[in-house]
Amino acid sequence: MTDSLCRPSQGAGTSGAETAQADAVLIAASLDDPERFAVLFDRHAPTIHQYVARRLGRDVADDVTAETFLTAFRIRARYDSGRAGVRPWLYGIAAKLISRHRREEAKALKILARTGRDPVAETWTDSADDRVTAQAASRPLAKALAKLSEGDRHALLLFAWADFTYQEIAEALDIPVGTVRSRLNRARTKLRTATGAHSPFSESSASSQPTEPHVPEGDLA
Questions:
Q1: What SS3 state is found at 41?
Q2: How far apart are the C-alpha atoms of 151 and 148, rounded to whole Å?
Q3: What are the residue ranges spanned by the domains of the chain?
Q4: Residue 175: which of 99, 103, 97, 95 has the closest Cα?
């Protein structure tokens, strides 16, 4: 099913493990040479900005993205190189900032529910036919998303829009993997009930997700 609540297509390039290792090296190096942190910004800011824009709208995405990296820079000495990668760490910071902008998120979801248009997603949608189909599907889904709890919405959209695994969601939100699974199952059930249709965030998309427990590491900020 094509819709504007789907995941962005992933391009080819450096493997996730290689990127995670390189990111950890950059963070460590930036403790002595702060300018090295700019490489991390260049590498990850575009996708985080894209995610925040979909959650809150473009008007506040610049500020939230900038604050995400400023916070990350301030607390970089506390980064655990044993994590799955820097992306969950950064998105976890972004999630906390998004939580402070509930009004903007509600407004963004209302616009999506009314128009069916997701300008950010349209940048990777291939054809006009796909965009029309996406708009029709997005309206009821946006209304259902607005009714989810904040925790369930964070988990679902990290899975759907950030292309995170269950383990990465657990690290980003500082919760056990079992809680991630529970939140996603609950959110999918509510979306199916609200829309009367098969959710694009189906369990089949995550059948290979890991189930090992996650040990919370405490607040990032």
A1: helix
A2: 8
A3: 16-100, 103-141, 148-221
A4: 95
Q: For residues 191 and 148, what is the distance between their CA atoms, to the nearest angstrom? A: 9
Q: What are the tens digits of pLDDT across the range 150-192?
A: 999 999 999 999 999 999 999 999 999 999 999 999 999 998 8
Rg (CA), the chain: 17
Instruction: Give yes or no for a contact between 207 and 185, defined as CB atoms under 8 angstroms apart.
Output: no
CATH topology (fold) of 16-100: Rna Polymerase Sigma Factor; Chain: A (1.10.1740)
DSSP letter at 109 equals: H
Q: In the block, which residue shows the tokens 């291939």? A: 126
Architecture of the structural domain at 148-221: Orthogonal Bundle (1.10)
Contact 198, 160 (CB under 8 A): no
Instruction: Please give the Cα distance from 164 to 91 (Å, whole number).
Output: 10
Is the confidence at residue 207, as pLDDT, over 90?
no
Look at the pTM and tell me if it is higher than 0.85. Answer: no
Between helix 177-195 and helix 166-173 the angle, nearest 10°, is: 100
What would you measure as the largest C-alpha separation in the chain, in angstroms? Answer: 55
